[in-house]
């Protein structure tokens, strides 16, 4: 039974449980390639690794490049081209967006701590604002930082966050990996290479000075902006009563500039047809919305495009020592759930999968192939236009893999109008299966440019 909701109050969380979340934005840099180019590069490669950048030559150069890609990726995920002919716009200003921030596993010599997490969070906020978004914020109170390379089960936790919070209307996801990050966290070591001497591992300097190999870590920076319109309806009711705090300055040369949109107090009346709504006298902050939005902020939210829909994940869990047949059965059940639920029995246009790296990756790949064959016997996983091995096409994205698969599937959904199953099977003790569905053709037809186009 739906709980009674009073005007100007958020819905109860159980009343708006999401079957799927909207993908508002995708920001990616994989091997230095931006989101706007990635899908075309992957398709043109025909199953091969996308073009790799020149070696940076040193750790300092690698770190400088990483700082640049952080800024551009965070800038891209919060910018969009709206429907019609309007100028490029940004997500809601002056709103502290909750975030899930992910990096690779930190080893003992570089263990995570509250101070480490805080410094990383502040670095990302600086990166975002220095990308030309000085009016945008991340929520320090409602953001989390985790350090785990095998993190695909975060998708279940992400949906659970929305399940528990009726006021959670958007969530920013961020993950990065690569040698610049691994130099801080540990775990960059490559397998022994003949070039470095029999049985001797390569040094980091040697890796950064030679051409990239398919087995190397990719420079991977991925950010997704997820949303749920149902959780913002109460803010829409409040917005007409909010005085916008924006200040406009006129310069002597005739130009003008403005400050950020935001909450400047309550007090305005709102006429709706023959009904006039008085402004509430006070506003009680909620866990994810410290201040109500003005109409300008509400418009920024409403105009943010929905690139695709990502559906609630199905998890396959098993022990590392379980027989292969039992692991296949568990993954088969998760795949069948995706097929019967979001896809309504229709096979996807493509399956994107990542069995990870390491000694057991081939065993994980075998489990994946057998599970797909059992659920979709006619699906040609070996066809480069149907089966997409993300590790072979994007390289080893490490801690960014779980978000990179959904990011690429969302770009493909917008550009092709087709669905995808994304399987992250990098762990020995389980895998996560998600479905990405496109928005409808009529909606996409309103956009003269791809929302994530640069200019």
From TrEMBL:
Pfam families: Tla3_C. InterPro entries: Tla3_C (IPR048303). Residues 325-438 form the Type VI lipase adapter protein Tla3 C-terminal domain. This is Type VI lipase adapter protein Tla3 C-terminal domain-containing protein.
């Amino acid at each position: 039974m739906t709980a009674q909701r009073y005007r100007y109050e958020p819905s109860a969380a159980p009343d708006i449980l999401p079957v799927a979340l909207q993908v508002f934005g995708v920001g990616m840099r994989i091997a230095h390639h931006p989101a706007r180019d990635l899908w075309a590069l992957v398709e043109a490669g025909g199953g091969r690794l996308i073009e790799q950048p020149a070696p940076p030559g040193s750790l300092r150069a690698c770190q400088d490049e990483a700082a640049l890609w952080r800024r551009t990726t965070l800038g891209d995920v919060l910018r969009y081209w709206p429907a019609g002919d309007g100028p490029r716009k940004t997500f809601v200003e002056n709103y502290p967006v909750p975030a899930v921030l992910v990096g690779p596993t930190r080893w003992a010599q570089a263990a995570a701590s509250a101070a480490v997490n805080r410094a990383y969070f502040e670095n990302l906020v600086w990166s975002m604002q220095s990308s030309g978004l000085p009016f945008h914020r991340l929520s320090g109170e409602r953001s989390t930082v985790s350090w785990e390379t095998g993190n695909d089960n975060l998708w279940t936790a992400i949906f659970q966050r929305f399940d528990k919070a009726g006021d959670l209307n958007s969530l920013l996801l961020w993950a990065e990996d690569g040698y610049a990050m691994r130099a801080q966290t540990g775990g960059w070591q490559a397998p022994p290479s003949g070039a470095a001497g029999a049985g001797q591992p390569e040094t980091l300097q040697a890796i950064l000075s030679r051409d990239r190999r398919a087995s190397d870590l990719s420079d991977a920076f991925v950010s997704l902006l997820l949303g749920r319109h149902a959780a913002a309806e109460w803010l829409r009711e409040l917005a007409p009563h909010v005085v916008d705090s924006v200040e406009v300055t006129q310069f002597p040369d005739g130009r003008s500039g403005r400050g950020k949109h935001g909450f400047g107090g309550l007090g305005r009346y709102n006429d709706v047809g023959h009904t006039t709504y008085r402004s509430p006298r006070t506003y009680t902050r909620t866990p994810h919305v410290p201040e109500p939005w003005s109409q300008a902020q509400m418009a920024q939210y409403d105009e943010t495009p929905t690139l695709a829909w990502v559906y609630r994940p199905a998890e396959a869990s098993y022990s590392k020592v379980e027989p292969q047949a039992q692991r296949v059965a568990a993954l088969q059940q998760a795949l069948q759930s995706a097929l019967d639920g979001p896809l309504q029995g229709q096979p996807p246009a493509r399956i994107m999968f990542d069995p990870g790296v390491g000694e057991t990756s081939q065993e994980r790949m075998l489990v994946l192939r057998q599970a797909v064959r059992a659920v979709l016997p006619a699906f040609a996983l070996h066809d480069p236009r149907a089966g997409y091995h993300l590790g072979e096409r994007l390289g080893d994205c490490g801690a960014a893999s779980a978000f990179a698969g959904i990011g690429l599937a969302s770009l493909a959904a917008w550009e092709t109008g087709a669905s995808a199953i994304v399987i992250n099977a990098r762990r020995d003790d389980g895998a996560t299966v998600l479905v990405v569905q496109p928005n409808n053709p009529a909606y996409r037809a309103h956009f003269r440019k791809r929302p994530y186009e640069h200019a």
